[in-house]
Write the structure tokens for this entry.
Amino acid sequence: MHDYLHATEIEEFDYDINHLLHAASILSGFSFGVPFILWLTTQFMSMQGLKLVEWVCIYGYSLVPYVPAVMICIIPLGIISWICLLLATIISCSLVVRNVAGPMLASDIGQVKAPPVLLAILGVHIIFFLFLKFSFYHYTPDKK
């Protein structure tokens, strides 16, 4: 989108369908794969605080902060993309942890199994942030 909006002539714009498929697979993996793995992990750890559909819904809603962030990332400044994506990641992770921590801690009898899962959620969000930044929001100045 950045390249399209900042192209001087329409003939100079070059689209890459593989880039779009790559983005769709990353987004699908984050919104369906991660919740499934976390649900499976909590099931094996005997913490049945949340159902699979609740995990998927929470992760789906947690992607909402990225919508305005990616719109602002059209601005061709690296610092803006860092700040916007970082803020979206913090809000997204906070939403997930806030909605998951209660049921997980309630279903964890000794409260020793839930904290590592919550840290894993934080780690997955950090990896998602870095992957977004370095795969999709890196700018190279024009050499004109």
